[in-house]
């Protein structure tokens, strides 16, 4: 069983920025493996693709469950985030349909990953500065986002026979996050 440590409490902006850094690091590591000539890197690439897919899936799910409702209630435009999430789901789908080491697959992951990372940076640079004035309790939302991701990660790591049938894979209703 994998043990996950929930990071120290952070606000939602810090959580989103950390997610961006983690995704960028994984994409950079994949690009570095693709640049190596003559090495057998398929196993390493596969591990990165699996981790990237998991991180994107969990981050995107948590944001859609918790961040989106808060942004909507606060009147923050969701369109940029929704477009970013559409890109993330597209990259996840593409990564599930190929093999690391295939030049077309590697090129697709790198191209879509770079595009998604650029969109992520643009959305964050334009939208995150709006959040402190939005009325959203960013510390509470950040704590809930971290807890939800940890819960999903634990559920992902748990063997199927240990899963609790009462464990909700999607999550319960989102509580209000406004002051």
Protein model, in words:
- It is elongated, with a radius of gyration of 17 Å.
- Mean pLDDT is 82; it is low at 1-6 and 169-179.
- The longest helix has 33 residues, at 42-74.
- The protein is built from 5 helices and no strands.
- Helices cover 66% and strands 0% of the residues.
- The protein is an all-alpha fold and 179 residues long.
- It has helices at 12-35, 42-74, 79-95, 103-127, 138-157.
- α1 (12-35) packs across α5 (138-157) and α2 (42-74) runs antiparallel to α5.
- The N and C termini lie far apart (38 Å).
State the total count of DSSP E strands.
0
Oligomeric grouping of the chains: single chain
> What is the overall shape?
elongated
Provide the succession of SSEs.
HHHHH
> What is the average per-residue confidence, as pLDDT, rounded to a whole number?
82
Structural class: mainly alpha
Radius of gyration: 17 Å
Helical stretch tally? 5
Give the percentage of residues in beta strands.
under 5%
Query: How far is the N terminus from the C terminus?
Result: 38 Å
Produce a short descriptive summary.
By secondary structure, the protein is mainly α. It contains five helices and no strands.
Strand and helix map with partners:
Elements: H1 12-35, H2 42-74, H3 79-95, H4 103-127, H5 138-157
């Amino acid at each position: 069983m994998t043990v996950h440590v929930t990071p120290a409490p952070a606000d939602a902006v810090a959580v989103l920025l950390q997610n961006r850094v983690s995704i960028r690091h994984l994409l950079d590591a994949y690009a570095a493996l693709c640049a190596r000539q003559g090495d057998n890197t398929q196993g390493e690439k596969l591990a990165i693709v699996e981790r990237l897919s998991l991180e994107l899936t969990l981050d995107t799910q948590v944001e859609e469950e918790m961040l989106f409702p808060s942004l909507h209630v606060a009147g923050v435009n969701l369109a940029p985030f929704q477009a970013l999430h559409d890109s993330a789901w597209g990259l996840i789908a593409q990564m599930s349909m190929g093999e690391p080491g295939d030049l077309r697959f590697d090129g697709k992951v790198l191209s879509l990953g770079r595009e998604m990372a650029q969109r992520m940076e643009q959305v964050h640079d334009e939208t995150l500065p709006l959040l402190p004035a939005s009325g959203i309790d960013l510390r509470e939302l950040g704590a809930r986002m971290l807890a939800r991701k940890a819960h999903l990660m634990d559920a992902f790591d748990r063997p199927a026979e240990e899963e609790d049938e009462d464990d909700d894979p999607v999550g319960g209703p989102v509580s209000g996050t406004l002051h």
